[in-house]
Amino acid sequence: MTTKTHRIALLFNANKTFDREVISGIAAYLGRRRSTWELFLEEDFRTRLDGIEHWQGDGVIADMDDPAVVAALSRCTVPVVGVGGSYASLDHYPPGVPYVATDNFNLVKVAHDHLIDVGLHRFAMFSLPKSEQHRWAQEREDAFSSLMQHDNMEAEIFRGHETSALSWDEAVRSQIAWLHSLPKPIGIIAVTDARARLLLQACTIAGIEVPEQVALVGIDNDPLVRMLTRIPLSSVIQGTQEMGRAAAHLLDQMLHGVRPDNTPVLVPPAGIKVCASSLHPLVKHPHVMRACHYIRQYACQGIKTHQVAEYVGVSRSSLEAYFRRELGCSVHDVILRYKLDAAKAGLQSERSIGDVALACGFTSTQYLHLVFKRELGCTPRAYRDQVFGALPDDVRDADHQTA
Q1: 48 phi-psi bin (left φ>0, alpha ψ -120 to 50, beta other)
Q2: Buried b / exposed e across 3-27, counting CB within 10 Å, b at 16+?
Q3: Domains of the chain by range and CATH?
Q4: Residue 112's Cα: distance from chain center in Å?
Q5: Among 13, 135, 203, 253, which one is most buried in terms of CB atoms within 10 A?
Q6: pLDDT tens digits along 213-250
């Protein structure tokens, strides 16, 4: 029996991690089903709405957080499935459209619960300026306010500015002023990883220690943001792959004559990736706090104990004594720990082990090998294979050349 091929338009902006991951979930659904779809996306993967109401295909899946997309698709005659943020009021969802939503309340709750778990008692949120395109950010603000109200605490929310070449300096100044106004230590939830990255930059410029004074959690688990931050960013992982699969399933049903219930499908977070930015330490001595902040940023650049002491402004012997008293280890031990953590993260990529060693401040592959055997009881290659599985042959060949 011949299976009919359906022509489906995907209206997403693949510049956004959220949209890319939803598209990936749609692809995963199609890879496991007999459904045959020809997918239409703009060549540069950006959403363009001109003439979409005249689309001659069989169906549409779209990111409908933007009211302009909702308005344009309201004139469509083919089946439409919406994807986007969740809303407390059903009136805020597109009328008459099956909809798959990321659970905004629980995204914020996961971040909030994590900050409580690391021992923090004060919290704030870094959001976005209000606009129709940022309605999902307002929902995250409302979720944060609800959590604060439940604990009888004031909801400290800062929206800041939209950033552009002309407004960047002003935006950073306002972020720094806000950060200085907050009681410390404090946990801050950013509505996206992109906003979290801006706040990390502001902390660095202002000399505010992360996570000793400010512990920060983003939302999106965006790999590009992780590469652009000196301090690895903790981030809540949205269930975007599941959202894509659920949206494709709904449209598949509609294409076969089944009309789904219009009750929004809420998809919970997939978890949280915990990194250095939110691991608030129970460190009280200001010299140790300042030293750890410096180490976290520059450990992979090959810094030595005497350089850390110079940055803090104390003698090497005094700093060593503070570390022994506060952390029960040496300054060198902490530097090595951060380098080792960076190397473990680097082995998740397809870079060769030699490249990972150099990028993480190890003088040679052999030294990285020695540290792994001593600290973890295995080689870097064995660690990579055990935890992440075998990599492509070309990467394995590169590993052999540098081992």
Answers
A1: beta
A2: eeebebbbbbbbebbbbbbbbebbb
A3: 5-101+239-267 (3.40.50.2300), 104-237+273-278 (3.40.50.2300), 286-402 (1.10.10.60)
A4: 15
A5: 203
A6: 999 999 999 988 888 888 899 999 999 999 999 999 99
